[in-house]
């Protein structure tokens, strides 16, 4: 069961809600609806689900409805129509008390401008969630200290937020959310106010935290790089609608429409695409079965000047060039082992394109993609360049 | 012709109406007003005569000076001013008047705050309350303060109690307004943060909104206290004892000297109270 499930969720701001909603159902655009009714569609029939332990990123330009959507999920904003299920329970139908306990126990939020209480110390801020649940002072401060330590803020607990730098304040924001030990973290542009270096550091830490604590994270950002770094899956929003949901690779490689494509255009693909996305099925020969003659034939068939050699269990053994193979045939050498070369350039499936450049640059033969010693694919120079240009064929079945 | 148009409606008996209303209220609520008049009157007299006046002036001056010293961040200026100023009032033979005035100001301000802060909170939470109370506050503040004396006397007779009543009406609005403003000013993100962690309404109010609004509310309270003090002279017209009454009687007897001396007393008190309440705000903010 997904931990968050959103079904046909819409939010209309303004007066003519009913009329606007009708138009929403007719599939009219946000702009048309604003013209006709004077109401703004904040979120337009959003449907998605988030699995336990996933980092789900919602991305879109300013005004696309990201903040509205995340606030609908803990009902800081009341939905106009649609359902929100948290752990299978319909949040949109809950009364105040039930809603409050879901907010206390399951959902915690981290804010763009940190949202720390300036009159409280760091420790009191971090303990806030438990304080309002009437947890004893001793207990809540113990938990708050643990959370603060987790985000690397063991030292400053008795200072006020105003005395801390932005990055440290956001750590407090994160600690405050973690103190409650919620299942889900809702993060609305949580790192947008930080400068780039700190931001990257926080992204790394969030990934670490997530993998150690297995929290489910709903992360809002308007920054594609951030989305690609953090997201297990990304939902792209435009004018209140979700236009595409997919893994970072899917979004990069197969943008669902022009809008997504535009978004993706500027991204530095070399950092996102990895070896597995551009590798091709390799021509191979089996060292245990074949000799130079077969090797030569295969190379001729495929029109290549070298071929990779594997054993029965596809462990990569080396390669053979066409020249060596024909020499060997003339000299009637039967065993490939005598002519095999082993100075093969190899990369892992996860190696970024960026790092494949330098390797592929000074090798005459293709680069081998190996996983645990086994040959998975090959990369030729042409496909690297094509992938960078954004029009190469890219394999998604490996992603 | 045009005048005829204006005279088309005969004079509306507004004044008679209000007279009637005042009488009705006086009659109907006398079971409320009478005990208030008696008990609260006694209480005020007790505070002035059996508490404040019993404290030896030296001790009183020292206490005020100490408070001034500490709230102003251990600086001597305000403390020194308090000592000299209060001694001057004592020296001019106005100590008992001062104590009566202090009683009136403190009790009136206290009541204003007790009534004003909750009203301000109500306004900040409810659009309807805001829409209803705002014009009433405007009315209360722009109506000349003297006017309140008339129903005050009708309800409570003469003395300190109607003075407090009139002062309450005149001096409460700033506390209400600033409380409302202070709470509305709390940044949206902080309110969201409180909500997102599952606060109840009361928790949000006491743990987030009021602490954040504190310095704004204190600024309102400061204004309330100053307005209450300005009512002292006016209230003396309906028999409230204190420095104001000295000003009034010197006016009636055309004695500029005694009038100014009592006036100085009010100014000194005003400065001390103003600076102390302002500094309380700063040092805690
Ligand atoms: N309280 C509101 N009343 C009316 N319209 C609103 C309100 N809140 C948001 N909107 C509108 O809803 C749309 C979505 O706003 P939202 O704040 O969710 O966008 P966003 O994607 O978070 O943008 P940003 O990146 O600037 O934070 C916008 O058109 C906005 O004007
Ligand atoms: Mg936003």
Automatic annotation (TrEMBL), chain A:
Keywords: Amino-acid transport, ATP-binding, CBS domain, Cell inner membrane, Cell membrane, Membrane, Nucleotide-binding, Transport. Residues 28-264 form the ABC transporter domain. Signal peptide: none annotated. Residues 278-336 form the CBS domain. InterPro entries: AAA+_ATPase (IPR003593), ABC_osmolyte_uptake_ATP-bind (IPR051921), ABC_transporter-like_ATP-bd (IPR003439), ABC_transporter-like_CS (IPR017871), CBS_dom (IPR000644), CBS_dom_sf (IPR046342), Gly-betaine_transp_ATP-bd (IPR005892), P-loop_NTPase (IPR027417). It is found in: Cell inner membrane. One of its GO terms (biological process) is response to osmotic stress. Pfam families: ABC_tran, CBS. It catalyses: a quaternary ammonium(out) + ATP + H2O = a quaternary ammonium(in) + ADP + phosphate + H(+). GO terms for molecular function: ABC-type quaternary ammonium compound transporting activity; ATP binding; ATP hydrolysis activity. Its main location: membrane. Its EC number is 7.6.2.9. One of its GO terms (cellular component) is plasma membrane. It is a peripheral membrane protein. The keyword Cell inner membrane applies. Belongs to the ABC transporter superfamily. PANTHER family: GLYCINE BETAINE/PROLINE BETAINE TRANSPORT SYSTEM ATP-BINDING PROTEIN PROV (PTHR43869), GLYCINE BETAINE_PROLINE BETAINE TRANSPORT SYSTEM ATP-BINDING PROTEIN PROV (PTHR43869:SF1). The complex is probably composed of two ATP-binding proteins, two transmembrane proteins and a solute-binding protein. This is Quaternary amine transport ATP-binding protein. The lineage of its organism: Bacteria, Bacillati, Bacillota, Bacilli, Bacillales.
From TrEMBL, chain B:
CDD domains: TM_PBP2. The keyword Transmembrane applies. InterPro entries: MetI-like (IPR000515), MetI-like_sf (IPR035906). It is found in: Cell membrane. The chain crosses the membrane at residues 51-71, 101-124, 145-171, 225-244, 256-273. GO terms for molecular function: amine transmembrane transporter activity; carnitine transmembrane transporter activity. Residues 98-277 form the ABC transmembrane type-1 domain. Keywords: Amino-acid transport, Cell membrane, Membrane, Transmembrane, Transmembrane helix, Transport. The keyword Calcium does not apply. It holds the Pfam family BPD_transp_1. It is a multi-pass membrane protein. It comes from the Bacteria. Its main location: membrane. SUPFAM superfamilies: MetI-like. GO terms for biological process: amino acid transport; choline transport; glycine betaine transport. GO terms for cellular component: ATP-binding cassette (ABC) transporter complex. Belongs to the binding-protein-dependent transport system permease family. CysTW subfamily. This is Proline/glycine betaine ABC transporter permease. It comes from Oceanobacillus bengalensis.
């Amino acid at each position: 069961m997904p931990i968050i499930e959103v079904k046909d969720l819409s939010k209309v701001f303004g007066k003519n809600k009913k009329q606007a909603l009708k138009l929403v159902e007719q599939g009219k655009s946000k702009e048309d609806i604003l013209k006709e009714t004077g109401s703004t569609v904040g979120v337009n029939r959003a449907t998605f689900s988030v699995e336990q332990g996933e980092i789900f990123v919602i991305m879109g330009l300013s005004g696309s409805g990201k903040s509205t959507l995340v606030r609908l999920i803990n009902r800081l904003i009341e939905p106009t129509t649609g359902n929100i299920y948290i752990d299978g329970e319909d949040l949109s139908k809950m009364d105040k008390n039930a809603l409050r306990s879901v907010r206390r126990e399951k959902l915690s939020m981290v804010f763009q401008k940190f949202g720390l209480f300036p009159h409280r110390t760091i420790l009191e801020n971090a303990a806030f969630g438990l304080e309002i649940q009437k947890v004893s002072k001793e207990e809540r401060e113990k938990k708050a200290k643990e959370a603060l330590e987790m985000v690397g803020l063991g030292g400053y607990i008795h200072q006020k937020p105003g005395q801390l730098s932005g990055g440290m304040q956001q750590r407090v924001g994160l600690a405050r959310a973690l103190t409650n030990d919620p299942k889900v973290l809702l993060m609305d542009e949580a790192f947008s106010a930080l400068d780039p270096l700190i931001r990257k550091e926080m992204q790394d830490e969030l990934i670490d935290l997530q993998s150690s604590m297995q929290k489910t994270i709903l992360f809002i950002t308007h920054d594609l790089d951030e989305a690609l770094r953090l997201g297990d899956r990304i939902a792209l929003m435009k004018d209140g609608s979700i236009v595409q949901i997919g893994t970072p690779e899917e979004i990069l490689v197969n943008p669902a429409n022009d809008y997504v494509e535009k978004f993706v255009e500027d991204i530095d693909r070399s950092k996102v695409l990895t070896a597995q996305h551009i590798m091709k099925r390799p021509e191979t020969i089996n060292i245990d079965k074949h000799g130079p003659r077969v090797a030569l034939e295969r190379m001729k068939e495929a029109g290549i000047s070298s071929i990779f050699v594997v054993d029965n269990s596809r462990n990569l053994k080396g390669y053979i060039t066409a020249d060596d193979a024909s020499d060997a045939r003339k000299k009637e050498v039967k065993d490939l082992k005598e002519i095999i070369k082993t100075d093969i350039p190899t990369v892992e499936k996860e190696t970024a394109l960026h790092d494949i450049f330098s390797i592929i640059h000074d090798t005459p033969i293709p680069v081998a993609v190996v996983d645990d010693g086994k040959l998975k694919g090959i990369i030729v120079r042409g496909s690297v360049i094509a992938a960078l240009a954004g029009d190469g064929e890219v394999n998604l079945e490996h992603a | 012709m045009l005048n005829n148009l204006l005279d088309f409606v005969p004079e509306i008996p507004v004044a008679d109406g209000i007279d009637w209303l005042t009488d009705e209220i006086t009659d109907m609520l006398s079971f409320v007003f009478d005990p208030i008049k008696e008990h609260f009157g006694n209480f005020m007299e007790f505070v002035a005569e059996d508490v404040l006046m019993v404290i030896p002036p030296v001790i009183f001056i020292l206490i005020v000076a100490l408070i001034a010293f500490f709230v102003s961040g251990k600086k001597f200026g305000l403390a020194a001013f308090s000592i000299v100023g209060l001694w001057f009032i004592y020296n001019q033979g106005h100590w008992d008047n001062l104590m009566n005035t202090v009683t009136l100001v403190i009790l009136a301000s206290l009541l204003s705050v007790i009534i004003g802060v909750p009203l301000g909170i109500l306004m900040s939470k409810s659009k309807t309350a805001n829409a209803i109370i705002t014009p009433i506050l405007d009315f209360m503040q722009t109506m000349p303060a003297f006017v309140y004396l008339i129903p005050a006397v009708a309800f409570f007779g003469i003395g300190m109690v109607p003075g407090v009543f009139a002062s309450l009406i005149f001096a409460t609005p700033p506390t209400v307004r600033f409380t409302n403003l202070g709470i509305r000013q709390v940044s949206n993100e902080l309110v969201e943060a409180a909500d997102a962690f599952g606060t109840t309404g009361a928790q949000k109010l006491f743990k987030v909104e009021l602490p954040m609004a504190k310095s704004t509310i204190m600024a309102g309270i400061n204004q309330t206290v100053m307005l209450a003090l300005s009512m002292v002279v006016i209230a003396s017209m309906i028999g409230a004892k204190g420095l104001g009454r000295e000003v009034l009687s010197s006016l009636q007897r055309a004695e500029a000297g005694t009038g100014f001396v009592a006036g100085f007393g009010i100014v000194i008190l005003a400065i001390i109270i103003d600076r102390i309440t302002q500094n309380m705000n700063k040092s805690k903010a």
